[in-house]
Design a protein that fits this description.
Layout lengths: L3 E4 L2 H8 L6 E4 L4 E5 L5 E5 L15 E3 L13 E7 L1 E7 L3 E7 L5 E7 L5 E7 L10 E3 L1 E2 L4 H5 L14 E4 L21
Parallel strand pairs: 5-10
Antiparallel strand pairs: 1-2, 1-7, 3-4, 3-6, 6-9, 7-8, 8-13, 9-10, 9-12, 10-11
Length: 190
Amino acid sequence: MCGRFTLKEKNKVKAMFGVDINPSFNICPGTKILTIDKNNNINFLNWGYRPVWAGDTFNLINARSETIFEKPSFKNSRRCLIIADGYFEWKKEIKKVPYYFHNNNKLFFFGGLFNETSGCCIVTKESEESLSFIHNRQPLIIDEKESDKWLQNEYDFSTSNRQNISFHKVSNKVNSPKNNSPENIMTIED
């Protein structure tokens, strides 16, 4: 599952996509997030996907890659790329412990689904073996070379490539959506 992520590299976003953003160290569901559709349009969509037939209180933030072709919720969805530079997952111990995952401050894409009536959600997959001790799911990270295939519904899930993802334990401050500072991604020691 992916319930929080970051997009803090303001200058890189401006250079690559021509969009000004406020750096965010704690993007949470219900926030407008930066996306790209198959026509290369840049959009800010609400992070929360609601099928066209569902009520206002029904919001999905994630969709399992294994079931997006079967679930009626995603029957009329379209694909998008969600721009990020890191994400958080919580390891279940006595208390949940947050970890920050990143690719050395590089921008990357999550595979996403959206519709016209509500917003978008992040597609997830089983975690890579090296990450699974923290959480059994992770966002589907789409390599830039594969981005067009994802957007055109030609992406091959069986060849989902390994990413150079690093991670470290971070403060519980990230647990509150109110906390949006660089402290959220700073390494803490055991």
